[in-house]
Amino acid sequence: MENAALAWILAAKTRIIYTFLTRMSFILTINHSLFPHHTMKVTTRFNPKLYELMSGYNRTRFVKDLGAGLTVSVVALPLAMAFAIASGLTPQAGLFTAIIAGFLISLFSGSRVQIGGPAGAFIVIVYGIVGQYGVGGLLLATLMSGVMLWIMGFLRMGVLIKFIPVAVIIGFTNGIAVLIALSQIKDFLGLRIEGSAPAEFFALMQTLWQALPTWNGAALAVSLLSLGIIIVWQYVMARKVTLPGEAGMLPRVSGSLALIPGSIVALVVATLVVWAADLPVDTIGSRFGGIPQQLPEFTVPDYSWEAVKGLFLPALTLAVLGAIESLLCARVADSLIRDKHDSNQELLAQGFANMVVPFFGGMPATGTIARTMTNIKNGGNSPVAGMVHALALLLVVLVAAPLAQYVPLPALSAILMFVAWNMGEWREFVRLKSFRMPYRIILLSVFVLTVVVDLTVAVEVGIFFACFIFIYRISSLTTAETVRLPETVIPEGMAQEGVAVYRLTGAIFFGAVKLIDDMLAARPSRALVLDCAAVIYIDSSGEESLAELLEEYQERGIPIVLYGLREQPTDMLQRTGWLQRVGAENVCADQAALAQRLAELTQ
């Protein structure tokens, strides 16, 4: 039964990925038909933003980048450990990823301010890979995803990510946020669960429910204290921009204090409270033995052909999700710094970083919105800031690693709870009533499937629905309307009733071939005229339908005359021989040529 279900899922994944690629090909072909003189390069050139910006780099900009990088490192420190622990890894895996991948992504990035590292979006996927294939499988999957990302960037596929519907992105983003929050309930409440919690939704809920009586009051208190500090600190930070007369009862934050993130304040306070009161809560030291005060060791992921085949779809999921996350982050950053990132170069940087980190025991990395926004708000203006952030984290590991053993896990779970809340776009659920039904179905189905079933299945089903709706809408825009020709076009001796004229609009493709049926049912006595000026695209299925139409009318002895063909339809019909069969004399450039041809038919 399980094998049958697995086979069905794999088959569904293959079909949906094929449908997605077909849709991309269709859109790009239409784009080429509208802009025939625009040539798209097959491969991209290696051109990091760092190389472009170094010519005008000076001491003032370096000081700004230095301050921004140090601030980002403070934000990245607890997040890197928290993301790794939530993914079923050791905290140093997250730190080493933030150091190595963060440095490489900034060094080769296609964005000026992108900050890379472990991301919350990967938690659910990484946890599932570790549970099924172990840490060695995760290292191999990360390496494979890096190769896929590099190939995507090399083949200039960054533009394809923009075609993923926003409803799919919002649905799985909110679903991931819910899953992150659910995964933190164990440490947030201090539950005692033997082994690791299951990744499957219903099994996880059952496990949490059964372990609920073991909740730890001290752990819950530390979690609530940490979460409260983060929320209050964010509120106080927001008051920094208020007018002096609007300060109210709380003091306004100013100076260097305003640069400290609430997560660090909560982490320090919670650690001191747990250490001073000797509270019975889990810490990094009690569960993981602390963080080694050394550089990461070089390791080679275990490789086998069977492992590669089994990890192909998880690696593809990591690659696609990493591409979406990084390019969305870069697009948001562009709107704030008035710049334009190179999406293909960004994919090259992400791919190279993910090909390197597995050799040092790291986890998947991508561009991160929270750290990138922190970089921008604190004056970061070049990739140097991201490189400084990575070097600062390395210094922390080499100098202050022994102190990490006192960090309480409930504090890290509170930080991730706050990250999950800010990660989700919850207002979109309220706004659903203002959107049409297809948008609601896609968003809600992706959200529910992400939480209940699997992230990969959710995205694929969402893309499948989007492709189906897209095809339906394009086909509904393709029309064949009967029109009357001007009297100046109809020659003497040929009545209007003897000529059937259809104005074709849109794309004649596999989803819109039924419009040919109306023309087959028409019974003109002298000629069938097709106005093709508004036809932007014809595919092989559309050509077959036109061939059927031509064969039917040739059997009746009635010519088909068409005019106004664009470049793509002309090219398609020439390559298939349809225009040769219809006759060059029946292909007119405009109505003047049409009038002359109709006059010839009356003789």
Provide structural commentary.
The protein contains 24 helices and seven strands. The chain has 603 residues and is mainly alpha-helical. The chain has three domains: 1-39 and 431-476, no CATH class; 59-425, no CATH class; 479-602, Transcription Regulator spoIIAA (2-Layer Sandwich). The strands form two sheets. Strands 3-4-5-6-7 form a five-stranded mixed β-sheet, with helices on both faces. Strands 1-2 form a two-stranded antiparallel sheet. The model is unreliable at 1-40 and 241-255 (pLDDT under 50).
Write the layout of secondary structure elements.
Elements (H helix, E strand, L loop, with lengths): L1 H33 L14 H5 L5 H28 L4 H18 L7 E2 L5 H32 L11 H18 L1 H5 L11 H11 L5 H22 L23 H16 L6 H5 L16 H33 L5 H14 L9 E2 L1 H9 L6 H17 L8 H15 L3 H4 L6 H16 L2 H23 L1 E4 L16 E10 L6 H7 L5 E12 L1 H17 L3 E4 L3 H9 L2 H5 L4 E2 L2 H12 L1
Helix pairs in contact: 1-19, 3-4, 3-14, 3-15, 3-16, 4-13, 4-15, 5-12, 5-13, 6-16, 6-18, 6-19, 9-10, 9-16, 12-13, 12-14, 18-19
